[in-house]
Amino acid sequence: MASKAKTIDGTDFTRPGTAAEEGERLLHSTSEQEIRDRAYEIYLQRGAQSGCAVDDWLQAERELTTKSSS
Prior knowledge:
By secondary structure, the protein is mainly α. The protein has 2 helices and 2 strands; from the N terminus they run ββαα.
């Protein structure tokens, strides 16, 4: 009878790189959520007028990238 691999929070430690990949995914999703939140703030500051979602997203990315690299 083979024993099942132990997991913590769904992370399978039997596969190399799994924990690192999960950490990268969480880091990416956090920064993506920060960009989304900032883009929404920019949208509201513009008076909630539609049609500039890409511009709002790119501005938010620039602001947060500049902020994090300082």
